[in-house]
Give the backbone structure.
Amino acid sequence: MRPIVIAALLALVSACSTYTTPGAGVSLGSIAEQDGDISEAYQREPAATFPAHMAVVRVASSGYRSGSTGSVGTGAFSVVTTRDIETEESLARLAALPRVAAVAPVSRLLLPGYLSSVRDLRTAAAQLRADVILIYTIDTRFRTEATDVGPLQTIALGFLPNRKATVHATFAFMIVDVRTGFIYGTGESSATGDQRSNIWGTDAAIESARLDAERKAFETGLGEVESLWASVLSQHDTGPGSR
């Protein structure tokens, strides 16, 4: 076969290659417990004891999937139980927080099939005898100079314009009292990766850019978690060994 024909066929295959963007994160406010009126919310108090056992769970939109992981549960949201951006060092960093006795991810085996609110996550965390639960989500968006590409959209790789492209990942979290549902605080951080979109000629190249942005957002977000935890201790830890 002539070289020019081979080149044409390769170009056609490239043009037909596609990449599907990951599902969306979830608004943590939308899954926070809304039972009762405002006065009842004011009456909710923290009940964690210190040193505290911390459960950790990542949430996303219902039916979330990406090139490296999926989720379990249906309803208002789902739970991502396969760690693709988190490392053992990440969990060790959380376990090293002052006045934290232990850290444990929430297993899918503890989760109900239908997820409606944070109460479902608290119930699962209670099975781990956790005092507090760190709930977080990652929301990732793609953009070229001309186009916003939303969640679960298919991109034809061969037709990406030769323009600057951006992957923007946002990490949002809240720390919740397992016993009462009291929210100790919230926070978020973001990371952006820029490069020429013509480099994104393969599924693997885009996946690499996505994972890099999400890992940066997550690691930066752990710094925000550490800051919030210091505030939690200063306000609520009055036991022996507290500062």
About this structure: DSSP finds six helices and eleven strands in the chain. The helical segments are 3-16, 28-31, 38-43, 88-95, 118-127, 203-236. The radius of gyration is 21 Å. Residues 17-235 form one domain.
